[in-house]
Amino acid sequence: MTPRRVITRAAGVIAGLLLFLFLTLHFIPNRALQGVAERAAAREGYTLAITGFGKAFPVGIKAHRIEIASEKGPLLVLDGPVIRLQLLPLMIGKVRLHCAARVGGGDLDAVATISGPGRLRLDGSGIRTEDIPWFRTVAGARVKGKMGFELDAAGPLSKADGSVRVEVKGADLKGVAIHGVPLPDAGFDTVRGALKITGGTATLESFALQGPSMYMRLKGTVTLGNSLGASPINMTLEMMPQPAFLEDQKLVFLLLARYMVTPGQYAVPITGTFAAPVIR
Description:
Blueprint: H1 3-27, H2 30-43, E1 47-51, E2 54-56, E3 60-62, E4 65-70, E5 73-85, H3 87-90, E6 96-103, E7 106-113, E8 119-128, H4 134-139, E9 142-154, E10 161-174, E11 177-178, E12 181-182, E13 186-198, E14 201-210, E15 214-223, E16 233-241, H5 243-248, H6 250-255, E17 260-262, E18 265-272, E19 277-279
């Protein structure tokens, strides 16, 4: 067989595969596809409230709005999410999806390779933290600031390798409580964090909150499981308040007195799971 015939036959196979995928997606009812997504989320312990579900050209799905929630309440709201199969990687045997959505006034962009060991690249920019219900639902907090982040991870969640970087400008934290234990209300000029994932264990290499009244640092690990929300955490929150701030919020610091390691320095142990943290 000549090289030209090989190329022609390969092109025909690829075209036939793409046509098959297009027709398969086209003839599956929207409600059936939505049901698949809802059941997949339910297996992980989450519920999806989807409005405006439909198909996206050429091979993909879209929705007007998706609300992701746990038994405690809403965690994340995606506006205008679109998931498309990338056709060029398919020609070399890779199944790769491109996902895009808005979170409030910010943007989420993800590329997920679901063939082989799998890989996820997730980028967020210009996202206001007050538009993420997770903070209110899980921590009962009012958190303000503008966030950007980068996540790059490969492999199944329980064995993943990768990294995460996050930055929040003008952060303001109020009403933060972990398992009923309040933390001080404070503002921070900049929040920066770097997390390394090795063999399914996520280690905070640095996560610092720098503000005029207090410096905070979070360190520790998350042991990733099949479900992110159920993944155990083992962390310590260090706080070094300025004397005037300590006096201004002395009631909160009195409740945290058992965690004082030296005058003006506190170390608060946090365990539980990612979805339900607990202060020991």
